[in-house]
Amino acid sequence: MYCDKTNVNILTALLAAHGVRHAVVCPGSRNAPIVHNLCECPVISCHAVTDERSAGFYALGICQATGEPVAVCVTSGTALLNLSPAVAEAQYQHLPLIAISADRPRQWTGQLTGQTMPQAGVLDTFVKRSTDLPEPNGDEERWYCNRIVNEVLTAAMQGCRGPVHINVPISEPLYTFTTRQLPAERVIRLQSALSEDSTTAPDPSLTAPMLQELACARRPLIVVGQMKPGSIADTDIRRLADNRYVVMHEALSGNGGASAMEEMLAMGEREGCPPPDFILYLGDTLVSKRAKQYLRRATAAAVWSANADGGIHDPFMNLHGVIQARPGDVLAAINGKGPTEWFYCWEKLRTRAVAHREAFAPQYSNMLAVKMLHRQLEKRHDSCVIQYANSTAVRLGCLYARSHVFCNRGINGIEGSLSTAAGYSLATAETVFCVIGDLSFFYDQNALWNRNIQGNLRILLLNNGGGEIFAKFGGLRKSNARDIVMGSHHTTAEGICQENNIGYLSAHNRGELQRNMELLTDSSTARPMVLEVFTDTEEDMRIYQEYFNTL
User: Fold this and answer.
1) Which residues in 104-137 are b (16+ Cβ under 10 Å) and which e?
2) Mean pLDDT score of the chain
3) Is residue 173 reached through a cis peptide bond, with omega within 30 degrees of 0 on the bond before it?
4) Residue 198 predicted with pLDDT over 70
5) Mean pLDDT throughout 158-177?
6) Is the pTM of this model over 0.90?
7) Which pLDDT score is estimated for 256?
8) Range(s) for CATH 3.40.50.1220 in the chain?
9) For a tag site, which of 92, 119, 176, 339 has the least CB within 10 Å?
10) Superfamily for the 360-549 domain
11) DSSP codes of every residue in 410-451
C-alpha cells in the first residue's frame, strides 16, 4: 500500500518510470510518506543512512557506479542543507543526483514553526533544475505536478547531466497508507535528434518513435507556433500538404502568413469535427485561444513537440514526447501519406474559410482598417516588414496577413510594441509597418520621443477609446469598474506626432480610411507617419463576432 498524498504518489511513479532504481533515505517524520513509497516501490532499492551529509555522498557513489539517476530523500528543515556538499560535487562531476526534500505546507514558512524554513530554491546554485511541488486540489494542479516532475527528472539526464532538486510540501496527516497502487502517470520522454555540430540533419532513426506514431494515426495534425522567418521552409509545408498532412499555422509562424486556422477551427467545432489523435507541435506561442482549447480537448492524442533546446513545453496539457531538433529537420523527416478522409475534411473547411475571408466586407471598423492595409501592401512592388502589437491587433493580423508578421508574443505584454517596431526600422532599409491599438500606443509613446525615428516607419493606430479585448467579457458590463479595466480614454495621437515631427493622418469613416491608407502605404513617402483610425469599441467587437458567426 502506498501513501495517500497525491504529489508523493505522482513523484514515486515518475521516479520509477524515469529509471531511478536506487534511493538513499534518511529518517524523519515529514518525509515519512516519501520514504514509505520508495520502500514500497518494487523497482527501487532503498538504502537507509541517518546522516544527511553522508547520505548525499552515498547517493553520489551509487551514481558513479551505475551511471543512473539516484534519489536521496531527506526531511524538512536543515536536513536539506546538509545535502549541499554532495549536490555541489555532483554538479562538477555531471552526475544525475536527485535531491528530494519533504517540506511543511507553504503557508507555514516564516511563521515561527519548528523545522520550517524557506526550502524551495536553496540548492539552485548547484542544480540544473529545481521545483516546488504543489499539493494538488484539482485536475489542472495535478497536471502541473506531473509536468514539472517530468521536467526536472528529464533535466537530470538531458545533455550534460547533473543534479536536480524536488521540494515536496506535505500536509498532515503523514501516516495514512491506503492507496493500493501508484497512479499510471504520463511520462514525457526526451529524444535528442540534434547532430553534434547542429548544422547537419539528424539521423532519421532518432525521430523514429514519433514517426511511427504519426504513421499509425488516423487524424494527425501538425501545428506551427511563432517562429523566426526561415525556420521552416515553405517547400516543406507545401510538400506535407501535397502528401495529405493537415498543417495549421498562424501569421507569426514564419512560413507564408496565416492558414485560416482560426476560421477552420470555428467551423470544425460547429460541425462536430473529431479531435486529432496525433499532434506534432513546432515553434513557440500560439495567438489563438480557440486553437489551444481545441488541442487541449484532444486528451487521447499522442502529443509531440520539437524544439532545439529540448525544453518541455506543454501548452495542450497532454505532452508525451519531445524531440530535441530543429523544427525544419523534423518536418523534412516526415514522409509517406496522411489519411485521405481526415485531410479532405479540413481542406474543405480551409476552402470555405478562405472564400469567406475574401468575401466578407466589414463595415467601417478596425477590422476594415487591417484588411485594407494588407490589401494595399499586396499592391507594393517592394518588400516590407509588419510588426503587430498584442491583443486585438495581432488577432486581426492573423486573419488577413499573407506573409510573416512580427509580434512580441513571448509574454504577450502591450508595452514596448511601438519601440520594438521603431528599433527594427533602424536596422533595415525596408519600410516597417506597426499595427497597434490605442492603449499599446499611448503606453509606449516615448518610442517617438527621440531623434532615432527614420522615414521608413509607418504606424496604423487603431483608436477605439480603450482596450477592445475587454469588451467581449459580458460579465464586465455589470461592473462599475468596466471603464477602468478597459482603460477608456479620449486621447489622440495628433499632438504627439506634431511634437515629434511625424506625419499625421486620421480616419473617421470609410472614405477617409481609403484615401489615407493609400498615403500611409505610399513607398515614395520619406517621412515617418501615423494613420490614426477612430472607431467604436462596441461596433468593432460586433463586426469581429459577425465575421465568425457568418462562417
Assistant:
1) bebeeeeeeeeebeebbebbeebbbbbbbbbbbe
2) 89
3) yes
4) no
5) 91
6) no
7) 65
8) 189-357
9) 92
10) Thiamin diphosphate (ThDP)-binding fold, Pyr/PP domains (3.40.50.970)
11) TT--STTHHHHHHHHHHT-SSEEEEEEEHHHHHHTGGGGSST
